[in-house]
Design goal:
This protein is α/β, with parallel strands linked by helices. The chain is about 30% helix and about 25% strand. It contains eleven helices and 19 strands. The chain has helices at about 20-35, 55-75, 85-90, 95-100, 135-140, 150-165, 275-280, 305-315, 335-340, 345-355, 365-385; strands spanning about 1-5, 15, 20, 40-45, 75-80, 100-105, 115-120, 120-130, 170-175, 180, 200, 210-215, 220-225, 225-230, 245-250, 255-265, 270-275, 295-300, 320-325. The radius of gyration is 23 Å and the shape is globular.
Length: about 375
Amino acid sequence: MRLLHTSDWHLGRAFHRVNMLGAQAEFIGHLVSVAREREVDAVVVSGDVYDRAVPPLAAVELFDDALHRLADLGVPTVMISGNHDSARRLGVGAGLIDRAGIHLRTDPSAAGTPVVLRDTFGDVAFYGLPYLEPALVKDEFGVEKAGHESVLAAAMDRVRADLATRAEGTRSVVLAHAFVTGGEASDSERDITVGGVAAVPSGVFDGVDYVALGHLHGCQTITGRVRYSGSPLPYSFSEAGHRKSMWLIDLAGDGSLTAERLDCPVPRPLARIRGALEELLADPDLARHEDAWVEATLTDAVRPADPMARLTERFPHTLSLTFDPERSPGDPDVTYARRLAGRGDQEIAEDFVLHVRGAGADEHERGVLREAFDAVRADETVREVAG
């Protein structure tokens, strides 16, 4: 069975001030063309179809167009909701859409109920594990402590239990939206840390033939059977080094597989340039970035006049301009933002405790801070989905 694995479309999302809807529509057309030309047997979409719980109308219309084009193609499609999606909204009409060969899996309680497709070798069971927000699903899965590993492990127990009841030789594919240990994150993914932990070990998924992951925006291989497709388009300059693509997976009758990486069309390359303004304007080596979307970091000790206007004369698609003067760490003018760069909420809060009290937080206090941040994040998730 030939599978086309994609994820993290983020329909409705912009890239800085650039509307990406046209590029997203071009990707949908590319996806349909690949599915037709490469004779794909099933398409799997591993979450974050939309960029937010209540997407703009134009994004909904594009998703509707994608569903119609995939249904007209006659290629079964399995989709799950991600942490950016509203599972309940995305799943509206799932029963009816199912009849058209588009299988939306957004209900955590159905983790052990697969979509079963057949090829010449027999059945392939597709299990959809939508994003599992630990605080919201721990009761459904009967786990005592809300954590990513515990709820995913419980969901996978249901998958393996169902698989054990099926005919010998039934192959299995799991769609999941999670941060798996060994994956490389970028700046454009929403933080899903719970209890100080965001990642789960890949061993949670043992016992299935292929795991189609979503959430991380870089295409990457965790193991031969556990892969991220990454997002088809860039959504932050931290993705400047990404090659945007999908996985074409051939799943043989014995469960062995081969994987081929297929490139996605992107509107422009990304470039991150750094240096003094005059150097950036004069450096001949930067000519290759003149048609790229550019993030420029200026290191001038004194902020130059009209830097954006001057930059865009050479780099007309400059979207981001930041200032990072080259100063010694002890310089009193080092900015607050620079001191906080790369530090998480927990670290910043613990530093604050140290600053105001003169002594760092103890283990109990660190636990209280973690619980507070987890509670706020879970509450924001509930309110966004309900809004």
